[in-house]
Amino acid sequence: MQDLDETLALVVGYFARLPDFIVPLSIVVIAVLTAVVVHWLVYRVVLKMLDTQYGIAGSLLRRSRRPLRIAIVLLALIIVIPATALPDAWEDGLQHLALILLIILVGWTAIILTNHFSERAMRRRRMDTDDNLAARKFVTQVRVLRRTANIVLVIFVTAAVLLTFESVQQYGVSLFASAGAAGLILGFAARPVLANLIAGIQIAITQPIRLEDVVIVEGEWGWIEEIYATYVVVRIWDWRRMVVPLSFFIEKPFQNWTRETASIIGAVTWYLDYTVPVEAVREKLTGLVNASPHWDGQVVNLQVTDTDKDTITLRGLMSARTSPAAWDLRCEIREKMIEWLQREYPQTLPRLRGELSMMSADELKEQSGAKSDIDLR
Hints:
Blueprint: H1 2-17, H2 22-50, H3 56-63, H4 65-80, H5 88-123, H6 133-163, H7 166-178, H8 180-189, H9 191-206, E1 214-217, E2 220-227, E3 231-236, E4 241-245, H10 248-251, E5 255-256, E6 264-272, H11 278-291, E7 295-307, E8 312-320, H12 323-344, H13 361-376
Antiparallel strand pairs: 1-2, 1-5, 2-3, 3-4, 6-8, 7-8
Helix pairs in contact: 2-4, 4-5, 5-6, 6-9, 11-12
């Protein structure tokens, strides 16, 4: 017992020699660690009890794991700080930290709720069908507005956190007091970002482009793969990706092949001899298009669109449900028509024309004499 008393006395004496803030600060640290452990245990138990993969509660719980950890830590700080005898400077610093965590928690929760409910709304729309115009319109609006909202929330949360510091508040007041030049400089510096953010809102509302729209941008043919807050990714037909600023689709002209519907008319041109039977070619074109699985049953036509001294130009029009189907249809019809012409009317394929005339000996002598006279002169 005497040894135990001596040991306790040594321990008490050791802690008595420590600075006054060590013990309260240790209590705060222990409370924070305890809150983290409690969050981990409770989260695992609750998630296992729900045992759901796609339900609203399970999805929200998985998304809110980190914000809930911040909330529990914040609750521990609120409970422990008033009960400890920390120095005023330490207590003010921890209270400031708690305020920052509260602001971050509110902003983070708003972002999580925005993303969760927007994704649930988009999940109800199917984009894997041919007639998906309404779904693409809705998903485009939700994605663009969601990303814009996330950026705005991050900006506001960052500004709110910075404004909790007195030095930042003083700098902001002096900046607004000086106004003029400083505001202009900041405005010019942020102009590209702000222009793209505003363009994103315009695109979400007016929708000159939507996800999976077929477009021609800078001479490249492709699909709108993704619309981000400041730029658009265009998936080109050969798997390349073109990154285009959002403001481009507001300020410059481009082609959108699926603005109102995905159906499109394709054209195939043949240059043939004047002896080609146009009506037979028209009947063959109609038969080939009717037999093709790529045709949508709307447009098929053949016209003579041009002539020159050697050939005539035949243009066949045919429609398809989508632009990729129209491309396949055009290639199929072009190949089969050429094969049919080679087999049935080979004489109608393009050729150079010449004229051979027979001249008598007197006419030839007369022409040669006239040429000699011209040379002598």
